[in-house]
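Worked example

This section walks through a single chain of length 73. The input is the sequence exactly as stored; nothing has been trimmed or padded.
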Amino acid sequence: MFRMNPADNLENLPEGYMKTLEGLPARLRTRFLEGVFSDKAANAYWTTEIIDKWRVTDDVPEMQRIRLSNLVK
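Given that input, the structure is written out below as tokens.
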């Protein structure tokens, strides 16, 4: 498991940033201050297992960006 938290990077953070994180709600404070991500999000449409099952890592097809403005006349 890899964990990152702002305490390891204090010299690169603006003054007062840590105080901002300390004022977050518990769930967000755990993630952004302590660097602990929850295993599962409540009511998530896509679980990590589903994403990993369908993840493509090789032979990725050529992609084309399609914007709504290209479709609407």
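What to look for: Residues 5 and 33 are 6 Å apart (CA to CA).
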